[in-house]
Design a protein that fits this description.
Largest sheet: 2 strands, antiparallel
Radius of gyration: 29 Å
Order of helices and strands: HHHEEHHHHEEHH
Distance between the termini: 56 Å
Shape: elongated
Strand order of the largest sheet: 1-2
Number of helices: 9
CATH topology of the largest domain: Arc Repressor Mutant, subunit A
CATH architecture of the largest domain: Orthogonal Bundle
Number of domains: 2
CATH class of the largest domain: Mainly Alpha
Structural class: mainly alpha
Number of strands: 4
Helix content: 40-55%
Length: 201
């Protein structure tokens, strides 16, 4: 097999693998009878490295073999591909969270009664998975509905004052209104502040 073809096979394998490949692994790409020698592999790897001289990536030899990687000087820009974007929470989720936090313990039906609309199962699931709320018992009524509480807020530094302020805002809202559409900018600010300092975010 010609050197150019070996080079293209090795280059393609390194791109497809997404990790370092050892000489043994590169050798396994070929039939036993046509396997290039380690000397041939190193020759084509050197050629590939030279081809990368004017590129934003390079071929590097590491402990586990050879791999392509972005040159360090371009890391600042490329790393932004993996920057975690701030989570965006829906109005419905914040409304539900507010009610659980300030009227706890509370059932799903009671939340729906205040909001005037059904509470999505996904909202409850998200709040439970993030440990923002938890089930603390069951109401002694038909169906034994779960009681939700939001103890996470009690541990936030300085949260007691925030809780009292927000409770006043929530309690003033008439039953059947949507919390965050009822001139509730103070509640929005309080919720943002509480979420900002939550160690569970």
């Amino acid at each position: 097999m010609e050197s150019q073809q070996i080079k293209l096979i090795v280059e393609g394998a390194l791109l497809a693998a997404g990790r370092a490949l050892s000489l043994q692994e590169l050798g396994n790409l070929f039939d036993p009878n046509g396997r290039p020698s380690n000397v041939q592999f190193r020759e084509v790897l050197e050629q590939i490295s030279e081809d990368c001289a004017e590129r934003a990536f390079e071929l590097r030899e590491v402990g586990s073999g050879f791999r392509f990687q972005v040159r360090q000087e371009f890391g600042t820009w490329v790393s932004r591909l993996w920057e975690e974007k701030p989570a965006r929470y829906s109005r419905a989720l914040l409304e539900t969270l507010a009610l659980v936090a300030y009227r706890q313990p509370i059932t799903r039906a009671e939340i729906e009664e205040v909001r005037g609309v059904a509470v999505s199962t996904n909202i409850i699931k998200t709040l439970l998975e993030r440990s923002w709320v938890k089930v603390v018992g069951h109401r002694d009524t038909p169906g034994k509905p779960a009681l939700y509480a939001a103890d996470v807020f009690a541990t936030i530094a300085g949260s007691q004052g925030i809780r009292l302020k927000a409770a006043k805002v929530v309690n003033k809202l008439p039953t059947g209104t949507l919390l965050l559409t009822h001139n509730s900018e103070p509640l929005r600010k309080i919720l943002r502040q509480m979420l900002k300092y939550s160690t569970n975010l």
